[in-house]
Amino acid sequence: MNVSAEVQDFLLKNVIERFLRYIQVWTTSDSNSSTHPSSLNQLDLGKILVGELKELDLENIVHDEFGYVYADLPSSKGLENAPSIGLIAHLDTSDAVSGKDVKPIIHKNYKGVSIKLPNVDDLEITLKDAPELEEYIGLDIITSSGDTLLGADDKAGIAEIMTACKIWQKYSEFKHGPITLCFTPDEEIGKGTEKINKNRLPKVCYTLDGGKMGELEYECFDAWMATLKFIGLSVHPGHAKNKMINAIHIASRFFSNIPESESPEHTEEREGFFHLIDLKGDEEGATARILIRDHDSEKNERRINYIKSLKDTFEVRYPGLKIEMDLLHQYKNMLSYLEKDTHVIEIAKKAIEESGLQVETPAIRGGTDGARLSEMGIPTPNLFGGGSLFHSRKEFIPTFALLKATEVILNLAQLWSLEKKK
Ligand SMILES: [Zn+2]
Questions:
Q1: Taking all residues of the chain, what is their mean pLDDT, rounded to a whole number?
Q2: Per-residue pLDDT at 206
Q3: Is 187 a catalytic residue?
Q4: Alpha-carbon dihedral of residues 265, 266, 269, 275, nearest 10 degrees?
């Protein structure tokens, strides 16, 4: 839909103000903690949001013991029967880089050169770091001061959702059906859906946790982990001929048979890989864990069969050696769930196009909360939040991306309000 200059102006100011405020709340999650949330400071941002959601006329606002924030926005008048949709973003930031005392800088009117981050000598964001900068010439770009990450991942998503609520409250011409918001803790440590209350979520959700403008993600890895146990036999090395079965040495030979070209450091985009993450042991026994990743499950099947055939070969090559193998299917490519109902994707594509952007659909080289929700029966593609270089002191976001992502949310809600409930 058309957003007038007046609304755009109000929207942009509102979303920038929120974004700058939210990123200054320290919400780093803690991968070493076993509590929910993993760090108590995530509750601080949750509390602020609860206060603001009340002012924005949301209902059934809950901030639960695990740190999740839920809220419902009733539909525009007359659209009570439109299907409900959920909008999800995460409260925490990655613990790879400090997220404490973020001091944002707005670099006005970007000129196409490297952006210097003042608090660290010689730290700058170059076009090589982020080729998309070329498309941002003339825009205002927000960065940290260089000593912390920025937190666009995922406070851009939160600011965009909250600003959309402000627009719906202030301008009744933006129509929408019933909407549920959910802000989750601990996404960055892989626990974003662990304590989620599925009953609070609609049948269709979208996360706002993607990267640069225009991106829509609905494919992730099909992920397996193989654990291998090599059982050998220790004998005094002076009398070991034809007796010793050196498990750790054999294991190292085993993994030297994994093709080097199929490793994380030699693959990109839709290329899959093996990733040996752990190998330890001695003559008597060795254990190893290897991750197997691909967007295409059949290609993973080939990799699994390759490991099985290596196992058989090694047991023949070293009489007396035993290899035990355990396979764990960690998560599936979310496309396998979304394929049944591509409508959820089509509407998101249309919402992005209506905001004047070109849709890009990169495949995620990892998993997402959306993948886990899709597996739980709630199809959840991932919309862009607008930032780049996540989990880094070089993280940045153009203010224009905050505007566009919010517009996409408004379009998405309007498009869904025209749908029939299933
Ligand atoms: Zn994120």
A1: 96
A2: 98
A3: yes
A4: -60
pTM for the predicted model, two decimal places: 0.88
Q: What is the DSSP string of 52-113?
A: HHHHTT-EEEEE-TTS-EEEEEPPSTT-TTSPPEEEEEE--B-TTS--SS---EEE-S--SS
CA–CA dist 76, 280 (Å, integer): 60
- State the pLDDT at residue 421: 80
Give the Cα separation of 230 and 5 in Å (integer). 67
pLDDT tens-digit profile of 366-418? 888 898 999 999 999 999 999 999 999 999 999 999 999 999 999 999 999 99
Q: Distance of CA 179 to CAs 25, 58, 80, 407, 416, Å?
A: 26, 10, 10, 16, 10
The one catalytic residue in 186, 187, 188, 217 is 187
What pLDDT was estimated at residue 366?
A: 85
80: buried, middle or exposed (CB in 10 Å: 19+, 13-18, 0-12)?
A: exposed
Burial of 108 per CB tally in 10 Å (0-12, 13-18, 19+): exposed
**Residues contacting residue 238 through CB under 8 Å, at least 6 positions apart:** none
Q: Please tell me the distance between residue 160's alpha carbon and the centre of ligand 1 in angstroms.
A: 14
Residue 347 CB partners (closer than 8 Å, separation 6+): 412, 415, 416, 419
| Percent helix / strand / coil, the chain, rounded to 5 | 35, 20, 45
Q: List pLDDT tens digits, range 70-111.
A: 999 999 999 999 999 999 999 999 999 999 999 999 999 999
Number of H helices, E strands in the chain: 9, 16
Q: Other C-beta atoms within 10 Å of 388: how many?
A: 25
Residue 187 Cα to ligand 1 middle (Å)? 7
Q: Are strands 222-231 and 216-217 parallel, antiparallel or unpaired?
A: unpaired
The mean pLDDT value for 282-296 works out to: 97
CA of 347 to the centre of ligand 1 (A): 22
Answer yes or no: 64 catalytic: no
Averaged over 7-24, what is the pLDDT? Answer: 98
Residue 313 pLDDT class (50, 70, 90 cuts): very high
| Distance (Å) from CA 20 to ligand 1 centroid | 17
